[in-house]
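Hi, here's the filled form for the chain we discussed.

Project: internal
Contact: R.S.
Residues: 134
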Amino acid sequence: MQLFRQAVEANDHETIASTLAEDVVFSSPVAFKPYHGKQTTAAILRAVTRVFEDFRYVRTVEDIGGSDHVLFFEARIDDVTIHGCDILHLNSEGLIDDFTVMVRPLSAAQALSKRMATEFAVEMGSIGSADKNG
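And the returned structure, exactly as it came back:
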């Protein structure tokens, strides 16, 4: 889990993607249905790094077996302070196969939803372009 945390803190998108299983399921705090797959989850994480300001992990909790981790974070979107957590499960290969994000307060979730709508559209457009070109 240390590799994922360090990659997020360094804004290293390639390494972040390398920690994700191909069949990862990402549950967003602002979307009803989960997203599936490494490519989509990596796109979401790239977008969120552009939305969050002053992002930092402040605490980590993990189970004794080392498969489940909760990384608590703080960030900002404009003048809204966000408190949240990434709830991660690792598969038998040590890759993230389940990724759930929770945020509070409600004003933070609303700010995140608004900003991510634009950023996620940009990311998904770039994936579509890459698929057509490559």
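Let me know if anything looks off before we file it.
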